[in-house]
Amino acid sequence: MIIDRRQLALLTGASGLAALLTPGSAVAQAKQFFRIGTGGTAGTYYPVGGLIANAISTTMIDASAVATNGSVANVNGIVGGAMESGFSQSDVASWAHSGTGVYQGRPKVEVLRAIANLYPESLHVVVKKGLNIRSVSDLKGKRISIDEPGSGSIINAKAILAGYGIRDGDYRAENLKPGPSAEKLKDGGLDAFFMTTGWPTAALTELATTTGIELLPIDGEPAKKIMAEFKFFAEDEIPDGAYKDVKGVKTLAVGAQWVTSTRMSADLVYEVTKALWSDKTRALLDAGHAKGKAIRKETALQGVGIPLHEGAERYYKEAGLLR
User: Fold this and answer.
1) CB within 8 A of 2, min separation 6: which ones?
2) C-alpha angle with apex 258: 268 to 238, nearest 5 degrees?
3) Residue of 300, 270, 304, 301 whose CA lies nearest to 285
4) Which of 84, 293, 298, 301 would you call most buried, defined as having the most Cβ atoms within 10 angstroms of its Cβ?
């Protein structure tokens, strides 16, 4: 049985969730759909989203992970009603809510609300092994994929390139997702591509094994300049061996966050947040993906630059993480 709009409206009240859970009630067997917008299937958002969706699904919540173009597309999908929630880089969420950055001149997404901070997303600058490219500054004139419009990675890629003095027109830009970028780099059609993602990610794991790659560092004065201009970046590091035979590098990171909107009822988001931090979810995250271990309740509020959803806020107060 699918809940229609009138039933869903009734469930947004304080008694709605109780009605949903009461045996024998008219909606006792109904499920509320809770889609999670993620990213491309070759990245980290998609598998992590699948783990979380599986973990939080219950007799009353039918959660599913949806492949998308990433952060900006997820924010747009939430606003447009195409999904109930989604993953977003912390920078994109903050820009959307405040109408700044890439959202300058556009309406503020004031309905956007946070459920949790998840894990740091490292900026990967990937080059094919053997091209003698040692620095981001060496990418001038090269063939580079900066990801698709609608992703957070494209925003970050342009910021990093600019920090090293490389502007639009100084390189041959392509707009491909990580999977197609990896294939094109393997075939010699690209020199480099950018990804903002938690490590390790499937596209790079395979590429490192089959073709051979190197990662470029983002450090020193350029990194300081970038962090001074864009406050949401933090120092980070991709360690040796994160990918087979690939030397680790210092880089920058943004937070991966789970966001929703004020249209979702407080009771529903409370249950979703509670399920996220359950023992069942903990076990699935620890066993299911390397980045799952970084998703910790004690860092759930770290770097959150938009308001919490009232349902999530209620949970964190009960858990002693908020006063």
Assistant:
1) 30, 31
2) 155
3) 300
4) 84
Q: Three-class SS of residue 124?
A: strand
CATH number listed for the domain at residues 5-120+256-318:
3.40.190.10
Q: Is the model's pLDDT at 9 over the cut of 90?
A: no
Which residues are paired to 196 by β-bridges? 123
- pLDDT, mean of residues 237-264: 95
Compare 31 and 209 and report the one with higher pLDDT: 209
Whether the domain at 5-120+256-318 and the domain at 122-254 fall into the same CATH topology: yes
Question: What is the structure's pLDDT at 41?
Answer: 87
Q: Where are the domains of the chain?
A: 5-120+256-318, 122-254
For domain 122-254, the question of CATH label 3.10.450.50 is answered with no
pLDDT at 23 over 70: no
**φ, ψ for residue 74 (rounded to 5)?**
-70, -45
Closest to 217 in 3D by CA, of 239, 171, 249:
249
263: phi > 0 → left, psi -120 to 50 → alpha, else beta; which?
alpha
Q: Whole-model pTM?
A: 0.73
Please compute the mean of the pLDDT values over residues 219-242 and round it to a whole number: 90
Calculate the dihedral angle through the C-alpha atoms of 286, 288, 289, 295, rounding to the nearest 10 degrees.
-40
Q: Estimate the share of the chain in helix, then strand, then coil, as percent rounded to the nearest 5.
A: 40, 20, 40
Rounded Cα gap, residues 176 and 157, in angstroms = 13
For the chain, give the mean pLDDT.
Answer: 88
DSSP string, 132-184: ---SGGGGTTSEEE---TTSHHHHHHHHHHHHTT--TTSSEEE---HHHHHHH
CA–chain centroid gap for 288, Å, is: 17
